[in-house]
Amino acid sequence: MSMPTVFILDFGAQYSQLIARRTREANVYCEIVPHDTPWTELAAREPAAVILTGGPESVLVAEAPAVDTAMYDSDVPILGICYGMQLIARDLGAELVQLDHREYGPALLTIEQAAAPLFARVENRPRVWMSHGDSVLKLPQGFELLASTERCGVAAMGNREKRIYGTQFHPEVAHTQCGAAILGNFLHGIARIGADWKMESFVDSSIREIRSQVGSAKVICALSGGVDSAVAATLVSRAVGEQLTCIFVDNGLLRKGEAELVVEAFRDVLHLDVRAVDARERFLKRLDGVIDPEEKRICIGHEFIAIFEEEAAKIADVKFLVQGTLYPDVIESKTPQSKVGHKIKSHHNVGGLPETMHLQLIEPLRSLFKDEVREVGRVLGLPDHVVQRQPFPGPGLAVRVLGAVSEDRLATLREADAIVRQEIENAHLDPKPWQYFAVLTPLLSVGVMGDGRTYANLVAVRAITSSDGMTADWARLPHELLERISARIVNEVPNVNRVAYDVTSKPPSTVEWE
Ligand code: XMP
After folding, report:
1. d(CA 233, CA 221)
2. 175 in the same domain as 80
3. Are residues 228 and 346 in the same domain?
4. What is the Å distance from ligand 1's center to 345 Cα?
5. 209 and 178 within one domain
């Protein structure tokens, strides 16, 4: 029997993938489809339920994105969220108004029907998240008012018999209290879908899809050592085995022992066909005399593409390129804000690869969030040190050696960084900082060692707490730990006589120094 499927009809909401994620967290399989998918197409796949997302438009305008109204005549349970609810209301003959002031942010929800299955086990007056400009004024026929807020008369509505529900607020966002329970009530209670879907099922279906997409063609993948490319490559390798060749470019900018670890993990543990390219000298040469961090990033990005293209050209009949694009990467590149936002740093990853290569993309992770990718990695049996890897900038240590990059300076940083990592890991902190590393500053300062004067490098240590790297605070590391880190660095790393700990948050600083 096939897995019960929930179709999420997408009206272009920022939160569509979040709804999908919450549905997966409720252990229910879902697919996001365009809002105007013909109902006959969906009905043929026997949907277990349908969720209509929010969207940026107003249902009151003539060209408002719509659904195939045949959906309402089926007996499939429907949940409309925000725009989705307004659309249901409009299609079923209710009255709507445009608000004078759009309503954004938190509101307290008064549950009008405590016995409504949508609110089972939800305490009255949860804080919910609103974001709308239109409101339902009068309910459609057959619907009852389920909840309201001070500023929104119809904050939730439902037709119990037809199992059609709507919420004006967003149950999928973390700021809505009991949002997961409300969505769970719809999926499990109202639509009666069992909690049977697991990440294993995602893995199985991705493997099937990749197989049918690729056929007998050849596939290449650039491994960076990061979680995303590792998981994407492993997934594709499970699907097409030896048709996949991975290319690992050792740019000499990785941390101590990392290049060996990557190759070993992928070749020996995961049995991937990995071509390791020793490009350490090429990168060093290219970086010679480059001081500006942005220029470093650009040089490294270009060099990487050049090498990758050279290597790919050595493999015959390549048709596909695997990329570990995640959902946040997808959304960042399409949100309108990103067009007007200031560029802080050009993030270079194995992603963003040459369009001139005319390869078709396989992006098996593009609907997932980082922690879900880690979960897929675990299901695939990737070792912990790969799955739990800290974020690491694409240009690697080149941006953590401030100023000129040379093999000597990289070696100094590698040693200091290895001590920072080792000591923080051995301290078994709870919670563990989100990211921690050393930075080699371009400063020299005076010190005294033995009886002699030194004039040597200053190493900075950065350890942060964060949930996504977008904002961060400096980690309050125990003084004894800082003492051990500092003592070991000045004793064990040649040419370093001073260690500083970074106590700035982001903003105003960034995580990396550069
Ligand atoms: P910043 O320095 O911008 O860093 O506050 C935020 C997070 O992003 C990581 N970072 C990168 N990650 N490619 C990446 O995948 C990059 O080029 C890159 N640059 C910075 C940084 O380590 C931190 O976790």
Report:
1. 6
2. yes
3. yes
4. 8
5. no
Whether the predicted pLDDT of 335 surpasses 50: no
Q: Which residues line ligand 1 (CB under 6 A)?
A: 344-345, 347-349, 391, 393-395, 435, 469, 506, 510-512
In a domain, 392, yes or no: no
Measured CA distances, 34 to 46, 85, 371, 391 (Å):
17, 17, 26, 33
**pTM of the full structure:** 0.73
**435-449 vs 452-465, strand pairing mode:** antiparallel
Question: pLDDT-derived band of residue 356, with 50, 70 and 90 as boundaries?
Answer: low
Domain residue limits at 162: 5-190
Q: Identify which of 345, 373, 439 to mutate to test ligand 1's pocket (most ligand atoms within 8 A of the CB).
A: 345
Read off the DSSP letter of residue 186. Answer: I
Best mutation site among 297, 347, 389, 514 for ligand 1 pocket (most ligand atoms within 8 Å of CB): 347
With cut-offs at 50, 70 and 90, classify the pLDDT of residue 183. very high
pLDDT band for position 62 (cuts 50, 70, 90)? confident
- Atom nearest to 434 CA in ligand 1: 24
Q: Establish whether 82 is a catalytic residue.
A: yes
DSSP-H helix ranges across 113-257: 179-184, 199-214, 227-240
How many whole angstroms from 392 Cα to the centroid of ligand 1? 6
Q: Which of 30, 152, 172, 415 is catalytic?
A: 172
Residue 170 known to be catalytic: yes
Domain CATH number, residue 169: 3.40.50.880
Between the CA of 227 and the centroid of ligand 1 the distance, in Å, is 14
Query: Helices 280-287 & 293-313, crossing angle to 10 degrees?
Result: 150
The CA–CA distances, whole Å, from 323 to 50, 216, 302, 483 equal: 30, 19, 17, 42
The closest of 183, 179, 166, 163 to 23, measured between CA atoms, is 183
Is residue 489 within 8 Å of residue 499, measured between CB atoms? yes
